[in-house]
Here is the input.
Amino acid sequence: MSLIRPYGDTTGDGMVQLSFTLPIQHSKVAEGAAVQLANKMGMDPALVVHAKPMGEGFTFFVVYGRVNHLVDPSTVEVVERDYPLLTPKEANAAIKRSLRRRLVVVGGCIGTDAHTVGIDAILNIKGFAGEKGLEYYRELKVVNLGAQVSVPQLVEAAREERADAVLVSQVVTQRDAHLLNTREMSAAFREAYPAASRPLLVVGGPRFDETMADELGVDRVFSRGTTPGEVASFIVHRLTGPRPTTQEKAS
Amino acid sequence: MAASQLGIDRADVRRARTLARQVGKPIVDLARRHTTVSVERATLRLAGLGGADPDGTPWVNRLADVVRADTGLEHGVSLPVWDALLRGEAEDLLTLAQKAAAGSVTFRLPEGRDSTRAAGASRKAVAAGIRQIDRQRVAREKMIARVGDAPSKPWIYLIVATGDIHEDIPQAQAAAREGADVIAVIRSTGQSLLDFVPEGATREGFAGTYATQENFRLMRAALDETSRELGRYVRLTNYASGLCMPEIATLAGLERLDMMLNDSMYGILFRDINPVRTFVDQRFSRQIHARAGIIINTGEDNYLTTADAVEAAHTVTTSQLLNEYFAKEAGLEDWQLGLGHAFEIDPEVPDSFRLELAHAMLARELFPDAPLKWMPPTRHMTGDIFKGYLLDGFFNLVGAMTGQGILLVGMMTEAVVTPWISDRDLALQNVRYVMNAAGNLREDFHPSPDGFIATRAREVLGEAVDLLEEIKADRSVPGQPPLLSAIADGTFGLMKRPADKGKGLDGVARKAPGYYNPATEILEGTK
Here is the structure.
């Protein structure tokens, strides 16, 4: 593959546009400072096409210019997510197609953890980060058990609801409570279910390490910033796609 | 109502309001028959009980919990609490709460003369809090008279949300200097599900800042300073929603907040809060807002973020009509009704702008004296900031053409980053350009009565009336208000919310004969 550079209106012109704010009162010096920044970023020549004072002591700039960098697409490395991100519509369609019934998700906070922020952000229709929660998905039946659910209660609810997936959120991490609780939970599910029919176990919380799934005995660990769409996509991917033949290693 | 620009028959509008009343009235009756832990705690707050124990649990929670354990919730906490004070168990409310928490006070339900004396004492204590709310209302009016009001409509509404009140303050002041007439401080994610109001100035939250009395006070004081500097009163907004709606409304009244988000069904549908809890709490909170001169903002925009904005347009109208009924029943006046609606139609839909205009004109015509709160696009903001900027311009244009009272400024970086200083400035330039260029377009613009816009507006009103008819006819649970059954059936949005499920149900009690609440008595003016 050949080397390429940005395209404005002529092949090889290398033109880019950039906007930013500098914490400086608008003046000739400020415009010069904007050019200096653009130069340091590799734009040369750089043309300040717009400079406007914003609030006290700030100036906003729009800069056009030529960069001399080349990019080589053949050396680009892409880390592929091991499941595709689905829109709610696509997720619903996948469930309908493969399960022919609603997929049941049971969720809650286990142990003494009373912080439902995480589980609610993922499950409540209100959602998080501009994405709707799992309740919004027509083909998902969501049972949110809320806070301070004991492990036996969780197992019982999962059985009663015939859960396909169990979501557990852990925010409190004092004395590694999140890890201990998660291990206790996964052990209880292993004991209560034959391996083939055990629901998918997913844990999440701001202090979890996403590579610890195997160690904790769960199918997936989600960390800070996870959105409902990611969780839904993962669940749908694992429960409606072909079952993995070997234990997937989290990368 | 002036002659309709949309060819709407006045009889249809009357019909819609009659239906909203018929659907809403049984809910009001239900609300009158119940109390909640948060209503009782709000009453204690009005009587001056604040602060929290060393673990951060508010004293109102500690006291109300002990009273409830001793005498039940169904009589209200006022009689047992002031009876204990009259019996000399403690010299004041705070000491009583501390003693109760330590287990050294037992509460009883006073009878006869004891009960009369306790009622009188509680009324006196609570009246002091209501007088403070009255004083704050007068202070707002005086300050507006002295420094001036927002120069024009719509009021420009900007959001701050850092999680740290001491970061929020300079951001809010900067936003006001840049042109905001209203500052909203977004709450921490999940506060709506806390069954207590956190205490003190807070410096960490999840995607927002906790609503606390101290945070309210700090922000209002800062904006007072900025209002004087700018020569216009800058309004402050927060959220009276969730499990502590009555208490947060009370704190807002005490600390002179100016607007509160307060929707009749949002907590039920989007937060899975028990419907009865919500309606009881909501009525009390609206009575407080009415007294405090606070403008409420309702949450109809949420319907359009979860359902198709064309198909669900009539659910917005239906909800506006219900919100109006509940608000007026609670004593709010037209100028206090910031009924919500939003610009959320997929821009790929043909005639999407005409549809938006039709829906907004319908809201304007149905509620001519309400300020209306106009919410910017969020669903179809994709990260293409250039397209988003254009979409926000069209949003502003609809706002200009339909005389919106409150305009939440749309950010081109919606769904990308929390707004940068430049995003806010560009967004305000967008608003100013449109208002300056087309603010008076209303004078010239009259849609053809047989045209697309007027026809669409009538169609949406018709669907809203049909939906209200359908709700009114819902008899799926005999003896239950039809609106509760409709909510349980999933009539609104996709959520089914049965009346006996949801968070906070254990905090609801049916009032016993002899139930007494001095706050309700004063707010309803029954004595």
Summary: The interface with chain B takes residues 19-21, 52, 54-56, 58, 60, 115-117, 120-121, 124-126, 128, 130, 132, 135-136, 138, 144, 146 of chain A (CB under 8 Å). Residues 15-74 of chain A form a domain with the Defensin A-like fold (CATH 3.30.30.60).
